[in-house]
Fold:
Amino acid sequence: MNISIPEKYHKYFNPYKLHIKIINDVTFISIKNKFLKKIGFISFVLDKDLTILFLEIDPLYRHQKLGTFLILITCYIGYQNNINFAFLDDTTKNAWILDKNIYIKLGFTYINEFPFPEMKGDVTKILKYCK
Structure:
């Protein structure tokens, strides 16, 4: 798997530290603060598509675009590995609250009708969020 982070994404996580770990087929990217305390992470699988398994940000660090950054980095890794689509289950409290939903803001759409949480996003369209 090809993993590198372009300079344009650094504004989202500076001054935090990123740590990437792969266990079996699952990749984990965590963000740690200057004291090396984990403040958020995302886990995902790359296959023929990108499947985001879990995203969590410490409540004290929310609303700083760290979740957005982790999704963008994950999609960028998918893009580097010729992945076209990302999938996830939106189990957040903002599921189906479209104006507050992080995934909707990035370009994901619900695959099925309410109340089903499955979402799909075009990786290249999601990456345009950074431009």
